[in-house]
Amino acid sequence: MVHYSSRKWPIVLGVTLLALIVALLVIWIVNQASSGQWGMLILGAIFFSLVLIGISVYLVLTLKEVNLSRRQANFIAAVTHELKSPIASIKLYLQTLDMREVDLDQQREFHRFMLEDVQRLDALIDHLLAAARMDHLEQTELQQENVDVAACLTRCVEMVARRYELDDSQIELDLVPGTAYGRTEDLEMIFSNLLDNAVKYGGKQPKIHVRLRTNGKERIAVRISDNGRGVRFELRRKIFRRFFRGGSELERTAVGTGLGLYLVRSLVKRSKGKISVSGRGPLPGATFEVDLPGHAAADEHPPDKSAAPPATAEPQPSETKATSTSSPQHTTEVT
Length: 335
Hints:
Strands 1, 2, 3, 4, 5, 6, 7 and 10 form an 8-stranded mixed β-sheet that branches. This protein has a two-stranded antiparallel sheet with strand order 8-9. About 50% of the residues lie in helices and about 15% in strands. It folds into 3 domains: about 10-70; about 80-135, Orthogonal Bundle (Helix Hairpins); about 145-335, Histidine kinase-like ATPase, C-terminal domain (Heat Shock Protein 90, 2-Layer Sandwich), CATH 3.30.565. Strand 8 and strand 9 (about 325-330) form a beta hairpin. The longest helix is centred in the N-terminal third of the chain and has 62 residues, at about 40-100. By secondary structure, the protein is α+β, with helices and mostly antiparallel strands. The radius of gyration is 26 Å and the shape is elongated. It has helices spanning about 10-35, 40-100, 105-135, 150-165, 185-200, 260-270, and strands spanning about 145-150, 170-175, 180, 210-215, 220-225, 275-280, 285-295, 320, 325-330, 330-335. Helix 1 runs antiparallel to helix 2 (about 40-100), helix 4 (about 150-165) packs across helix 5 and helix 5 runs antiparallel to helix 6 (about 260-270).
């Protein structure tokens, strides 16, 4: 097994230095107190405290760098796999067409498979470019418009259903007419990523529920639920970090790059919205809720972009099968 940068030695070194500083501080205090030099005692205590704080901050920053290095290594492995798989598939189909005589129906089938692989590559490249541009775009005012959220969700559901060959019974839509104020490309990427995750991390037979409701006069709420293992409470903020994917890339079964939920969070934030993740009470799986500026379809006026999101009610604990055992969990709001 390949081991990435270890956190063991930074932790051991940091704890050792902290212990030495604390020991020196105690000796200094005892020595100066016994000699009655209170001025030197106070000055030394302040100095040692600053050194202690500096070492603690350095240890924390070092661990963050190690974790970032590990996530980047996982990201490289994931992107390599995501690029190689469709290329290998396209190469195989082309070699088959070149070496064998196939009938017209089979040629059309091969062309359809190759087109799906090209679309997969195109989506991956779009994700990488969007992630690279995200920091710059967050500081840029972009042209926004009224977007039909129900139609946008329907397009995304159809695309995901075709990609994973899902039956109509596996995705349940519960949509009311509603309009969001944003960019169509942003909303499509948000919903596509959430639906894609719901399928990849759902049960053996994924079942997805998509719900659209108006939330007050100037907000809309989209909830996407799956029937998978759920998200453990301690990971509900971490999953939105760039490159984050739990575990080792070499031992993981679900494909991905660790950019999907990072893009979702960034695009929701840019759209003046918020996103939260919660369990489904006694049911297995997780629910992602996106709250965006919007209005009912009959309302012709766009919402006030400066309006703050509505206050979140006090979350109620619920039991969620995030792992093999249930534990009390509640909604975690990220943005």
